[in-house]
Amino acid sequence: MKSTSRAPRRLVFSLVVLLLGLVAAFLFGEWRARSGPNIELSRLTSTAWQRNPMQDWTYIHPYAAYVPRPGYDARYQKSVNQFGFVSTPKMDSVAKPPGRIRIAFLGESSTAGMGVILRDVDTWPYQTWVLLRKKFPHADIEMINAAAGGYTSFESYGRLWSQVRFFAPDIVIACHGWNEMYYFDDAGPEKMLTRRWKGDGDWSFPPVSLPPRIRPFFLDRYLAWSRLYSALRAVRAARQSPAPVGEAAPTRKKDAELAKTFDPRGVEVFKQNLLLMKAACDLMHAEFYIVKQPTLITPDLPPALREERCFTWYHAFDYETHLRAWQAIYQMIDETFRASNVIDATSLSGKPDLLFDHAHLTPAGSGALAALVAEQLARTSNRWTEVKTKR
């Protein structure tokens, strides 16, 4: 009888211990959360004019509009090194040691691994670096990822000339296309001269209207005071849309509401920027390569995926017009550069397993692009001659 009467007491005791443990864990988590940055839950669950998130991870730059903040750690194994290069290992110095081969990558969010956040090791420049080190184990190879979310070839050229050239790169690889189409909406001089300025001629990070990062939950109204709860909700938001994006997205419109044409002068703007990069590389005695950027926007993509993943409203012209714009870009690249300096990645286009959306690569897509780039560099670059001789 005694053992029977003690059973409920033991159960109650166990429940009390469990409850006290949960309370202690919560209080400890709350204490740790309050020692970190204050996360405003309302910013995650509401649509409002908010502080521009670019201020968290970039500095304004006179020649490239903005550059990643040196040493910034975006968590989830995403970082910026001490010189402001995203997803780039820490470098010994600006000066290049004798015998070292430096490869610099220029591009937009798909190259930086932003937009849809990729870990450092999942970006295609990083994976290209890994593959080349395997192909040439006796070579001293270093990589620089000078891309950033929101960049066009204009910003990449500014960064190449104002920063990257001091690192004396031996090989420069540019990958642009999607963001160039902002020029395709209106490539007139009035818009081009004021693209990143506010109405008064200033350039800064104005507030932006951001959509909710996560859907409101009924507990939000009761637990918004808790830093721990807000931090956990922020982690969920980061996993759903873990991106320090380059620019705020424009208002979404249906394809039928978008223009049927694009400004052909935009192709010429892109061409001139690429030629400026090539000229800068010639002065630096660096080899220049241009990637024909892969895209999910292809003729055979099912209508449901077009609507779900291809954000054509960014450029104010419709899906079919985007198809023509991509073809115009590819044709310009083929006509402007030697085939040995063009890395054709269009074989990856239209594959949902390789692209999250219109231009952002999945980890598998990054690996596929890295394989193409590494193979062409190994085959066509002159930088391996000395390495092969040593072997």
Tell me about this structure.
Helices cover 42% and strands 12% of the residues. The chain is α/β, with parallel strands linked by helices and 391 residues long. It has 15 helices and 11 strands. Helix 1 packs across helix 10 (227-240), helix 6 packs parallel to helix 11 and helix 11 (265-284) runs parallel beside helix 13 (319-336). The termini are far apart. The strands form 4 sheets. It has a 5-stranded parallel β-sheet with strand order 7-6-8-10-11, with helices on both faces. 36% of the residues are buried. It folds into 2 domains: 1-36; 84-205 and 248-390, Rossmann fold (3-Layer(aba) Sandwich).
Contiguous helical run count: 15
CATH class of the largest domain: Alpha Beta
Query: What is the global morphology?
Result: globular
Give the CATH H-level superfamily of the largest domain.
Answer: SGNH hydrolase
Q: Could you estimate the helical fraction of the residues in percent? A: 40-55%
Spans where pLDDT lies below 50 across 5 or more residues: 240-246
- Briefly note the structural class of the backbone: alpha/beta
What's the overall average pLDDT, rounded?
Answer: 86
Characterize this entry briefly.
42% of the residues lie in helices and 12% in strands. By secondary structure, it is an alpha/beta fold.
